[in-house]
Write a structure and sequence with these properties.
The protein is α/β, with parallel strands linked by helices and 339 residues long. It is built from 12 helices and 13 strands. The strands form 4 sheets. The chain has a 7-stranded parallel β-sheet, sandwiched between helices. Helix 1 links the parallel strand 1 and strand 2. The longest helix is centred in the first third of the chain and has 21 residues. The chain is globular. 47% of the residues are buried. It binds nicotinamide-adenine-dinucleotide (NAD) and thymidine-5'-diphosphate. The site of nicotinamide-adenine-dinucleotide (NAD) has 30 residues, from helix 1, helix 4 and strand 5. Thymidine-5'-diphosphate binds next to helix 6 and strand 8.
C-alpha cells in the first residue's frame, strides 16, 4: 500500500502520518505539502527518519507539479488534508480558500483519474452544515443535513465536498468524504482556540474570547479523528459521507476556564473582544453512521485529552515559538489589536 497524504505538515495530517507509521508500518507514505504559514516542517522530523516516508514540498494548485509527483510515486490511495483552514483568515481573504480548497482538490482528483489511483478520501468539516440553535440540544448534524454554510472557509469546504461527490458520479472516481467536528491535540497552529489560549495563558497574555463566549463547539481528540479516517479507508463505502464527532459539546468560555485552571493561571486574563462576523453558534455531530457501519468511536475522554494537549504544548515551547515568530506577530496585531 502506498498512500499519498496532502497537508501532512499541518495539524491533523501530521497526526495521521504518525498514526500510520505506528499502526500500518508496512505502508509507504508520500507527503505533499506547500509548507504555508500553518505548517511547521519540524513537525515531521520524526517521520523523516523512517524509510517508509517521503516528503515533497508542492502546492496542490500546481497541476504540473502534482502530476509529476503522481507519475513518479504511483500512489494507491490519496487522502486530502491540504487546505486553508482558519475561519478568521477566510473572512479577511476568501480568494485563497477558493483556490486551495476547491481548485486544489480538483487538481488532486484529476491526477487520481490520470494516474489510476484507486481511492480518494476528502477530509471535510462539519462546518459545511452551518450552525445549530443554542436552545435545541436535540438537534445534531447528520450526513443528510442540508449544506448551509456561513463563512468563506466553510463555503469553500462545501464546494470541495460537492466536487468530490460529483467526481464519483460523473467519472467513477472511488471517493469517500469525512466531516469532522473541532479537533484538538498536538501540532495545532496557535491561531485556533485551544493552542492560542494555551500559548497566551503560558505567557500571561490576555485570552481574547469572541462575543459572550457562549458559542458551542463539539471537540474531538485529533487521534480519534485520524482513526476515523483510517476506518473509512479500510471499511467505508465509496460515494459515501461519514460524520465524525464525539458528543463532546463545550462553550468556548468553558474551554478557556479549563485551560486557565490546568495551567494555574488567573481568570482575570480572560478578555471579551468583538465577535467574529457571521459567528456560528453551535456545532454538534451525530456520529452514529460511522459507529454503526465502521465500528468507529472516540477513545479519548475530553478531560484526559485536554490535559495531554496542555502538557504537550508546555513540553514543546520551541515548536510553539517557531510558529509564533515572524508573520504570526503581524497576524495577531491585525486580528486582535483594538478589537
Ligand atoms: P492546518 O491548517 O493545520 O494544516 C493545513 C496544511 O495544509 C498545512 O500543512 C499547509 O501547509 C497545507 N496546505 C495549505 N495549502 C496548501 C496547498 N495549496 N498545497 C499544499 N499544501 C497546502 O489544517 P488542519 O487543522 O490540519 O486541517 C486539515 C484538514 O482537516 C482540512 O481540510 C480541514 O478543513 C479539515 N478539518 C479540520 C478540523 C480542525 O478542527 N482543525 C476539523 C474538521 C476538518
Ligand atoms: P476556531 O478554533 O477558530 O475554530 P472554528 O471557528 O473553526 O470552530 O474557534 C473555535 C471557537 O472559539 C469559535 O467559536 C471562535 C472562538 N474563538 C475565540 O473566542 N477566540 C479566539 O481567539 C479564537 C481563535 C476563537
Amino acid at each position: 500500500m502506498k498512500i499519498l497524504v496532502t497537508g501532512g505538515a499541518g495539524f491533523i495530517g501530521s497526526n495521521f502520518i504518525y498514526l500510520l507509521l505506528r499502526e500500518r508500518p508496512e505502508w509507504e507514505i508520500v507527503c505533499v505539502d506547500a509548507l504555508t504559514y500553518a505548517a511547521n516542517i519540524h513537525t515531521l522530523n520524526e517521520a523523516a527518519k523512517s524509510e517508509k516516508f517521503t516528503f515533497y514540498k508542492e502546492d496542490i494548485r500546481n497541476r504540473d507539479g502534482i502530476y509529476a509527483i503522481f507519475d513518479k510515486e504511483q500512489p494507491d490511495t490519496v487522502v486530502n488534508f491540504a487546505a486553508e483552514t482558519h475561519v478568521d483568515r477566510s473572512i479577511e481573504n476568501p480568494g485563497i480558500f477558493l483556490e486551495t480548497n476547491v481548485l486544489g482538490t480538483a487538481v488532486l482528483m484529476d491526477a487520481c483519474l490520470k494516474y489510476g489511483v484507486e481511492r480518494f478520501h476528502q477530509v471535510g468539516t462539519d462546518e459545511v452544515y452551518g450552525d445549530l440553535p443554542l436552545d435545541r440540544p436535540d438537534l445534531l448534524f447528520r450526513e443528510d443535513t442540508p449544506i448551509h454554510t456561513s463563512s468563506p472557509y466553510s463555503a469553500s469546504k462545501a464546494g470541495a465536498d460537492l466536487l468530490v461527490l460529483a467526481y464519483f458520479r460523473t467519472f467513477g472516481l472511488q471517493v469517500t468524504v469525512s466531516r469532522c467536528s473541532n479537533n484538538y491535540g498536538p501540532y495545532q497552529f496557535p491561531e485556533k482556540l485551544i493552542p492560542l489560549m494555551i500559548n497566551n495563558a503560558t505567557h500571561g497574555k490576555p485570552l481574547p474570547v469572541y462575543g459572550n463566549g457562549l458559542n458551542v463547539r463539539d471537540w474531538l481528540y485529533v487521534e480519534d479523528h485520524c482513526r476515523g479516517i483510517l476506518a473509512i479507508l479500510e471499511k467505508g463505502k465509496t460515494g459515501e459521507v461519514y460524520n465524525l464527532g464525539g458528543h463532546n459539546e463545550k462553550t468556548n468560555i468553558e474551554i478557556v476556564r479549563t485551560i486557565l485552571r490546568e495551567l494555574g493561571r488567573p481568570e482575570s486574563l480572560i478578555t471579551y473582544v468583538g465577535d467574529r462576523k457571521g459567528h456560528d453558534r453551535r456545532y454538534a455531530i451525530d456520529p452514529s453512521k460511522a459507529n454503526r457501519e465502521l465500528g468507529w468511536q472516540p477513545t479519548v475522554m475530553f478531560a484526559d485529552g485536554i490535559r495531554m494537549t496542555i502538557r504537550w504544548y508546555t513540553e514543546h515551547t520551541g515548536w510553539l515559538d517557531e510558529c509564533t515568530s515572524g508573520d504570526y506577530v503581524n497576524y495577531y496585531a491585525r486580528m486582535y489589536s483594538g478589537r
